[in-house]
Amino acid sequence: MDNNTQSRQLSSPREGSGVGSPLVCIIMGSTSDLPVMEKACQLLDQLQVPFEVKALSAHRTPEAVEQFARGAKERGLKVIIAAAGMAAALPGVIAASTTLPVIGVPIKGMLDGLDAMLSIIQMPPGIPVATVGVNAAQNAALLAVEMLALSDDAIAARLQDYKATLKQKIEKANEELAALKFQYKTN
Where are the alpha helices (DSSP H) in 17-136? Predict the structure, then answer.
């Protein structure tokens, strides 16, 4: 990925672009997580949900993480998707400083992401973090969209259309499988 592509992907919606203020923030410990988190960006973009992308580290920039989390609601954010690998503290640190829902995405690393997943799901009482599967950024974005759809009919309609396309993909796959010809294939 070239620097221009990365810069474009990490920027927030511009004033006057017609996109509006971000409703979702995708935050990651470093840009090394971007290849995984790009799937969340693509889905939010496809469903026309304004979002922003940031890199902050629970360990290297703890004050900035806390400042971000404390101000997120006042800036109009509704959901935060936080990706983290290894010790995976970022989602929990954010959840400790905001009342917004936080969705954790464990990033595959040294222990195939099990270390990150366990770090994210083992939150203490009172500090919940919704957690999706390892590297499941697309599901994190879908969960965020489902949350937003509870109070936004336009987003709900786009989500419903998206889910209908999933059904169509499976129906088409079954048609293609039915057309396969093998001597001992019975259907």
Answer: 34-46, 62-71, 90-96, 114-121
